[in-house]
Amino acid sequence: MDAMALLLAATLNAGTVLAIAALGLLINERAGIVNLGAEGMMLVAAIAGFATAVHTGSDVLAFAAGAGAGALLAAAFGALVIWLNTNQYATGLALSLFGAGFSAFVGIRYTQEKLPERMRFEIPGLADVPFIGPAFFRQHPMVYIAIALALGLGWFLYRSRAGLVLRAVGESPESAHALGYPVRRIRLAAVMAGGALCGLAGAYVSIIYTPLWVEGMIAGKGWIALALTTFATWRPARVLLGAYLFGGVTMLQFHLQGQGVEVASQLLTMLPYLATIVVLVLISRNPAWIRANMPASLGKPFFPGS
């Protein structure tokens, strides 16, 4: 029972990274923009957050630095694809490659740095409940913030006027423009908000999830988060469930190794990526279902007045 509680706790921890990043990408795609640069943004945010934590000792400032770095890179991406109409896929890939190289260069001096002992968080009273307490109520506040973000984003998209406008921009930017909405500025705001959430996820990795800096430490989580948006058919609640599913698969490898299961470590390491491929293959078998849920203008440039 103790081992299962620890596995559930680790699943929530690992899933939080994917959930926050995927929710950011969902905001982008609901506005009609595909950003393949999540991996690069998360890497730059990871080193920005870690460096800030090293120099200030403040997790709040570190998370703010990570979110700011993600938003700044997203703003540059948005300027290119929204105003200069560069190809969204090529620009996103370029951003991912830039982020990997830039973070490796900047992070050279931080590879030997260590953060001070992290504060332990627990909810008084609930944290001591057998099994449930260790599994669910001894988590970092960002775990609960991720859940609140998913619920809040669901309300925003389907219950608020601003969310309706955002979805309208993703479905038919021409119609939204004809009604007088500033489509380009709305898309830029969505891209920057998504970038800030990806930055928050990247900072969480280097500050809480694995409190250190190593080159390439995001290790494909940005790509998994990108796949999650399709897996969840662009719905926040499903993003959260999918993130915990992939988080559980990621943690399962360590759980099996701890239980002494004789399986090659390379096979266990590939489990999250194998699960991603399997899920995408299963979803792609029903393209009509994807088209019914996908924003109609996803990945398509918008030319005002054309």
TrEMBL record:
Bilayer topology term: Multi-pass membrane protein
GO cellular component: plasma membrane
Location in or out of the cell: Cell membrane
GO molecular function annotations of the record: transmembrane transporter activity
Keyword set includes Membrane: yes
Classification via Pfam families: BPD_transp_2
Protein name: ABC transporter permease
Organism: Azohydromonas caseinilytica
